[in-house]
Amino acid sequence: MNEFFPDVLLFAGSPFEINRIMLIRFIAVLAIVLIFWLGTRKMRIVPRRFQSLVEMGLDFVRVNIAEDLLGKKDGRRFLPILTTIFFMVLFMNLTGIIPLLNIAGTSVIGVPLVLAVVSYVTFIYAGVRKHPGAFFKNSLFPPGVPKPIYIIVAPIELVSTFVLRPITLTLRLLMNMVVGHLLLVLFFSATSFFLFTAGGWFSLFGIGTLAFGFVFTLFEILVAVLQAYVFSLLTAVYIQLALAEEH
């Protein structure tokens, strides 16, 4: 658990403290910038392999998340923020299985919380911009509900729509990365113990834990991609709900 609270490396005692996880986050952001700069600096009508990979990633977010849920007009309008969220979550998740980094940039609450707040603010902005003066009213008091029932419905809508959404977005991403890291540490620590400390016949257990560690590493790659997709997809869903005509 101490790996989630590493020692300060730079600027100790200031608001700009940098520890190992912060460095990993910087590395992930630099990797995003570098990959997209290299993939788009010399665009060709007939793309080369690297440009094709970058375009496939961008098209995935545009087609399967933005335009699929929001339509072409609103999809393109909110595409930059959905693309940023998707690739930021993806790259910071993948640092958890990269040698020498070995911990996800999203495994400490800061980044998941910031992204959840961005998603939440975008949802509020979309609703207020589309339905000024009616967004909050219709969110808390859905049309067609008998007035006495609003005593029950309004508090439920307030909590579920304006309180739980950013909390669940944060915790879903955070806890998946924390649990994944702990599982990998468990398997590879057990492998080290059985192979180099226990010795003898216990080495056979080390082979098993190593195999499980490898399998869960592959599973972590799947989880990293899935969590990036789910986070950006839910953001698009919330925006869609804010833009819906019933508001």
UniProtKB/TrEMBL annotation:
Protein origin, superkingdom: Bacteria
Gene3D superfamilies: ATP synthase, F0 complex, subunit A
UniProt xrefs under SUPFAM superfamilies: F1F0 ATP synthase subunit A
Coarse class of the protein's main subcellular location: membrane
Protein source organism: Subtercola vilae
Annotated transmembrane regions: 20-39, 78-101, 107-128, 149-167, 173-196, 201-219
HAMAP family: ATP_synth_a_bact (MF_01393)
GO MF annotation terms: proton-transporting ATP synthase activity, rotational mechanism
Protein name, as recorded: ATP synthase subunit a
Organism lineage string: Bacteria, Bacillati, Actinomycetota, Actinomycetes, Micrococcales
Cell compartment(s), UniProt: Cell membrane; Membrane
Bilayer topology annotation: Multi-pass membrane protein
Protein family: Belongs to the ATPase A chain family.
Function comment: Key component of the proton channel; it plays a direct role in the translocation of protons across the membrane.
InterPro entries linked to this entry: ATP_synth_F0_asu, ATP_synth_F0_asu_bact/mt, F0_ATP_A_sf
Keywords: ATP synthesis, Cell membrane, CF(0), Hydrogen ion transport, Ion transport, Membrane, Transmembrane, Transmembrane helix, Transport
Any Pfam family hit: ATP-synt_A
Gene Ontology CC: plasma membrane; proton-transporting ATP synthase complex
